[in-house]
Amino acid sequence: MSTLTIASDPQDAAAAEAVEAHHEQLAGELAGRVTMLLAAAEGDPAEAETVRAALVGFCDRDLLPHAAAEERTLYPAARDLPEARLLIDGMLAEHRRLTALVDALRTTGSPVRTAADARALQVMFEEHLEKENTLVLPLLAASSDISLAGLLAGMHELLGHEHGHSHGHEHGAEGEEAGSGGGCGGSCACGGSDDVDAPELDVREVPHAIRHATVFGALSA
Questions:
Q1: Contact in structure between 101 and 115 (CB atoms under 8 Å)
Q2: Separation CA 147–CA 140 (nearest Å)
Q3: 201-211, pLDDT tens digit by residue?
Q4: Distance between CA 186 and CA 189 in Å, rounded?
Q5: Which domains does the chain have, with CATH numbers?
Q6: What is this structure's pTM?
Q7: How far is CA 178 from the centre of its chain?
Q8: Which own/partner contact pairs does 174-181 have at CB distance under 8 Å and 24+ positions apart?
Q9: Is the Cβ–Cβ distance between 46 and 25 less than 8 Å?
Q10: Hey, what's the torsion of the CAs at 202, 205, 210, 214, to 10 degrees?
């Protein structure tokens, strides 16, 4: 784990590590998508719209469900700890701001405004995850009255799809076709295209801590 966590048992330590790993995956994919959006906004407004739609799709599919799962499981348990009550209230407020930024990305028509909203979303999400990794998870893992592993059992939204069921079910036949054909011709909001070259990702602009996750996130996009 990137954060030293004193857990009440090995299962809770492993659960905290799995959540942190999924956080890194989410942050990396978001950073990759935002970097591509910024590059497209500078040179190709039409491509920027395609990347924007794919970014919103990622948020609806992964980022917002992750936040909702935290509000159902981790946050209620943490809020029962007196020392974490104000912290969790602040985390819930940040969830509302993250949701508002995603909603802004749905409706914005200007490439400049889209780029600004996307970058704000990335920065806020990374800061939010840092608090979860360094404050919320250690509090839960250290509590002898809370089973972090039990809270997370079967929660693929919090642990990543490799810990739950397959991610591919969400797309059905469309996802299989996209996977086999390498693109959708731009007919959906997945960001794939048979005709338009994707913007290049300059890894030098990505923080080293999430560079690997960002590259793999960009490849999966």
A1: no
A2: 8
A3: 554 455 554 54
A4: 7
A5: 10-165+201-220 (1.20.120)
A6: 0.71
A7: 22
A8: none
A9: no
A10: -30
Asked if residues 25 and 218 have their Cβ atoms less than 8 Å apart, the reply is: no
Instruction: Give the pLDDT confidence of 64-104 residue by residue, as tens digits.
Output: 999 999 999 999 999 999 999 999 999 999 999 999 999 99
Task: Give SS3 for 117.
Answer: helix
Task: Print burial letters for 45-64: b (CB count within 10 Å at least 16), e (below 16).
Answer: eebbbbbbbbbbbbbeebbb
**Range 192-218 average pLDDT:** 49
The half-sphere exposure of 41 on its side-chain side, counting CA atoms within 13 A, is 19
Residue type, 46: A
Q: Which of 3-12, 37-46, 62-71, 84-93 shows the lowest mean pLDDT across its residues?
A: 3-12
Q: Are 174 and 163 in contact (CB under 8 A)?
A: no
Q: 119-144 burial by CB neighbour count: b if 16+ within 10 A, else e?
A: ebbbeebbebbeebbebbbbbbbbbe
Amino acid letter at 62? D
